[in-house]
Design goal:
InterPro entries: AB_hydrolase_1, AB_hydrolase_fold, AB_hydrolase_sf, Epox_hydrolase-like. This is AB hydrolase-1 domain-containing protein. GO terms for molecular function: monoacylglycerol lipase activity. By secondary structure, the protein is α/β, with parallel strands linked by helices. The chain has one domain: 3-Layer(aba) Sandwich (Rossmann fold). 45% of the residues lie in helices and 13% in strands. An eight-stranded mixed sheet has the order 1-2-4-3-5-6-7-8, with helices on both faces. The longest helix is centred in the first third of the chain and has 23 residues.
């Protein structure tokens, strides 16, 4: 009995020390790339909170396409930085927000985060920017689910803008086959999740994030630094467990959101990295082809994982823009050589 008490006492002391170290460990600085990303962005107010977004306009694009890019968990709009140069060359407007609780946006604590609220945020942003038509959604992960709710609202006739097409990257659009990683499962638990979120640090984060990338397309040290900086910004690491309620949202609204994919009349495409422990191959592409009528899907190299836009950005942007061209939304393409 004495041994157990002593062991528990030691563990409590160790946890207290770790908590003190991690809570007081200084936030990393903005890299030059992140500084440029932030300084060229904008903010708008949503429910009293500041929400960051990118709004890039191109005078050279020979079309009126607006691409709305919706990022995944736990990262931000910065996920799109590698494909942005080719976006600028080929589409008239590129809009990429940071959802509430992510990136450079506000991250309120003790907040009830939900996919429905994030979808309301997107509608508010589009109304603020006076965008109401020809919107082409490019989503990833968490952003896929927001896209599904946007599609459902358009089907219901309750969307404030018109979606012209949807292209999704790796995301848990089918809850029955979605496999959260261990860290996500732990962060969702009521007590352990609270402790883990407060003890979160660069090393834990980089190991967890690197684990969903393909074996030969790992994130660079610079990228990991920037991703962690954006999570540390405004103490975002403390709300990750709350944001993970989206996994429960997916199950609760499965009929509505999978139904939106199945019954929508707009062009729908998927670009899939098969080395993804969250949306596994061949189960995911097989399910997609089974559920989606006339399925349109590009499967990337076997080594590409959960973040195709970062792991194989040149191939992803080529596939996406060529798909838009095949649907006659774009007539000519210009790629960076």
């Amino acid at each position: 009995m004495g041994f157990l008490v002593n062991t528990l006492s030691i563990l409590v002391v160790i946890l207290a020390i770790l908590f003190t170290v991690f809570v007081n460990y200084p936030e990393p600085p903005l890299s030059p790339l992140l500084y440029q990303w932030q300084s060229s962005g904008h903010y708008f107010h949503f429910k009293g909170y500041q929400v960051f977004y990118k709004d890039e306009l191109s005078e050279s694009a020979a079309n009126d396409i607006t691409v709305l890019s919706l990022h995944g968990f736990p990262t931000s709009s910065f996920d799109w930085y590698k494909i942005l140069p080719d976006m600028r060359r080929n589409v008239r407007r590129f809009i990429a927000p940071d959802f509430l609780g992510f990136g450079l946006s506000d991250k309120p604590r003790f907040h009830s985060y939900s996919i429905v609220e994030q979808t309301d945020l997107i509608e508010e942003l589009m109304m603020t920017l006076k965008v109401d038509t020809n919107v082409h959604i490019l989503g990833h992960d968490y952003g896929d689910t927001v896209a599904q709710e946007l599609m459902a609202r358009q089907i219901d006739g309750n969307l404030s803008f018109r979606i012209a097409s949807v292209c999704l990257l790796n995301g848990g659009i089918f809850p029955t086959i979605h496999k959260p990683i261990l860290m996500q499962t732990l962060l969702r638990s009521p007590i352990l999740g609270t402790i883990l979120s407060k003890l979160s640090n660069y090393y834990m984060f980089s190991m967890a994030l690197s684990g969903v990338f393909g074996p030969n397309s790992q994130p660079s040290r610079d990228d990991l630094h920037d991703f962690w900086k954006l999570i540390r910004q405004k103490d975002g690491y403390r709300v990750m467990g709350d944001i993970l309620s989206y996994i429960d949202d997916r199950r609760q609204h499965e009929d509505r959101w999978v139904g939106a994919l199945r019954t929508n009349q707009m062009p729908l495409h998927f670009i899939y990295g098969p080395s993804d422990p969250i949306n596994r191959s061949p189960e995911f592409p097989n399910t997609y082809r089974k559920i989606i009528p006339n399925p349109s899907i590009d499967v990337l190299d076997d080594q590409i994982g959960h973040y195709p836009q970062l792991e194989s950005h040149k191939r992803v942007i080529q596939l996406y823009l060529n798909w838009l061209k095949s649907r006659q939304f774009i007539t000519q393409l210009v790629f960076n050589t």
